[in-house]
Design brief:
The protein has 3 domains: 2-91; 97-206, Nucleic acid-binding proteins (OB fold (Dihydrolipoamide Acetyltransferase, E2P)), CATH 2.40.50.140; 215-507, no CATH class. The strands form 3 sheets. A 5-stranded mixed β-barrel has the order 1-3-5-9-6. By secondary structure, the chain is of the alpha+beta class. The protein is 62% helix and 12% strand.
């Protein structure tokens, strides 16, 4: 006991360094699922919080150093277990009795546009936070999703009045004959109600930093449409800014069948590319200023694009990397991943149970962190290095996401791995050159032509690759629905891999620190 937890050889600090963050993370996960399955409520949450705090008080009363480390670990587990329950109850959207009494009836809502509206091929999606319902104040600040015409575009912080038929969110059937849980998907964002194609009046136009950032993003997208033709401009808008609304449904289907959907939207990979290029651009600055400015720009960028789980996870990990470099400290991707997921779930615990994007981002990153080093030696003969990296990262990420992807989508892209290997190495080219084309295009379309042409060629290549694999016979395989327990069973090898990598890292750290 003393060798593992004791203080005499310094092992207690080693154990805390390795496991404290993960105890907190899994405590939070267990707390969220406890509330999801059993509705424990505030009373149980605060009771567990009191128990957790009693563990920390006990540290000052116990003199035996051998048991202090397990007390800290258990205390942190219970602390975040209670936070998971309390936060889940707090952020879960509550039904609005005024709207519940008027379901399928016409209502008049006054409120403010929340976030950037999404303009798609057929309609515009606008989220409003309601102030009043039929003239009666709404103290809950209920969120309602509005489907309306593409024009005019409603901007963040616009005060609007909506007249239309209020409905509850409903699930729908996908192309693979699966029921998409749209109710839960919107619930994570606090949305329970929708109105389709109502009458809308703008009473006051909004203002503020986020509105200006959204305006800058939309201006950038407009410039891309000037310097690049469709559908290449919409693809680059998705890759750079997370706005793929200009792509047609048949384009989306091509990327889905070829296993390249993740490149169409702003993903963690894209954020990583932006972060690395930004660091290179600012290389001439002093290191502290470089890291600080890079962090600020990345945060502003993520705010501007209203990023999803993958981008937020990449943002947190990028900031931790910059912070570690500024302090000349080691950066461990596994701990950064744990901290990123922990902070995201504390902010919105509903993401864990209702957001497939959160799970896919976490699993893909876990594959890169834990599986890539394991298989890297198998492909050491592949040249150049960028191709080797594409092969290793694609196989590692897809190995970890595949069971969950099949569980949720019911579809496998047969040639997805090969398509990703051919496409991923060239992704940074259109992102960087296309960005320059849009910026230069503000000054002169003629001067932007060389950048536009290079970007167009690479984007066209991506479309050709995606189309080729999507149109091959049996490019996708449909899988029947299966139970949660089978999903857990399918992930047992992945859990074992993570366990082995953690054990290896623990042994390496013990050897480096001289702990026996």
């Amino acid at each position: 006991m003393r060798n593992y937890f004791g203080a005499s050889n310094g092992m207690n600090w080693y154990i805390l360094k390795v496991y404290l963050l993960w105890f907190a993370f899994f405590g939070l996960v267990f707390g969220i699922y406890t509330e999801f399955f059993f509705s424990a409520g505030y009373s149980i949450g605060f009771l567990l919080l009191a128990v957790a705090l009693s563990f920390f008080v006990a540290l000052f009363l116990i003199r035996n150093p051998d048991i202090k480390t397990p007390i800290i670990l258990i205390g942190f587990f219970l602390l975040f277990f209670s936070i998971g329950i309390i936060r889940y109850v707090y952020v879960t959207p509550k039904q609005n009795y005024l709207l519940e009494n008027n379901i399928n009836n016409k209502v008049v809502l006054s409120g403010v546009v929340s976030g950037d509206s999404v303009v798609g091929a057929r309609s515009q999606q606008v989220v409003i936070r309601v102030w009043s319902i039929d003239g009666e104040e709404d103290k809950q600040g209920t969120k309602v999703l509005i489907f309306t015409e593409n024009f005019p575009k409603y901007e963040h912080k616009d005060n609007i009045q909506v007249r239309g038929v209020i409905k509850k969110v409903e699930n729908f059937e996908t192309e693979t004959n699966r029921q998409f849980d749209y109710i839960s998907f919107l619930k994570k964002d606090g949305i329970l109600y929708t109105i389709s194609f109502p009458e809308i009046e703008i009473s006051v136009e909004g203002e503020g930093l986020k509105r200006n950032l959204f305006g800058l993003k939309n201006k950038f997208i407009e410039n891309l449409k000037v310097v690049l033709p469709e559908p290449e401009s919409s693809l680059l808008s998705g890759m750079l800014l997370g706005d793929d609304s200009g792509l047609l449904p048949e384009d989306d289907q091509i990327f889905r069948k070829s296993g390249l959907t993740h490149i169409v939207v702003l993903s963690g990979y894209n954020i990583t590319i932006i972060s690395e290029n930004l660091g290179k651009i600012l290389l001439m600055l002093p290191k502290t200023l470089n890291y600080s400015l890079s962090g600020v720009v990345i945060v502003i960028f993520v705010l501007m694009v209203s990023a999803g789980p993958a981008s937020l996870r990449a943002l947190v990990m990028a900031l931790l990397l910059l912070f570690a470099r500024s302090l000349h400290r080691d950066y461990l991707a596994s701990r950064a991943l744990a901290f990123a997921l922990l902070s995201m779930l504390v902010y919105n615990p509903l993401s864990l149970v209702f957001d497939p994007g959160f799970a896919l981002s976490a699993l893909a990153t876990a594959g890169l962190v834990y599986f890539s080093p394991t298989i890297e030696n198998l492909f050491k003969k592949i040249k150049p290095a960028v191709l080797k990296e594409a092969v290793v990262s694609t196989i590692a990420a897809q190995f970890f996401v595949l069971p969950f992807l099949i569980y949720k989508m019911g579809e496998i892209s047969v040639f997805g791995t090969l398509a990703n290997i051919l496409v991923l190495p060239v992704i940074p080219i259109p992102m960087f050159v296309g960005f320059l084309a849009s910026i230069v295009g503000i000054l002169s379309i003629i001067l932007s032509t060389p950048f536009s042409f290079i970007s167009y060629l690479v984007l066209k290549y991506i479309f050709v690759v995606a189309g080729f694999f999507a149109n091959l016979p049996s490019s996708t395989i449909l899988i029947p629905e299966f139970s949660n327990w089978l999903l857990v069973f399918l992930y047992l090898p992945h859990i074992y891999i993570v366990y082995l990598v953690h054990n290896r890292a623990r042994r390496d750290l013990k050897n480096n620190t001289g702990v026996s």
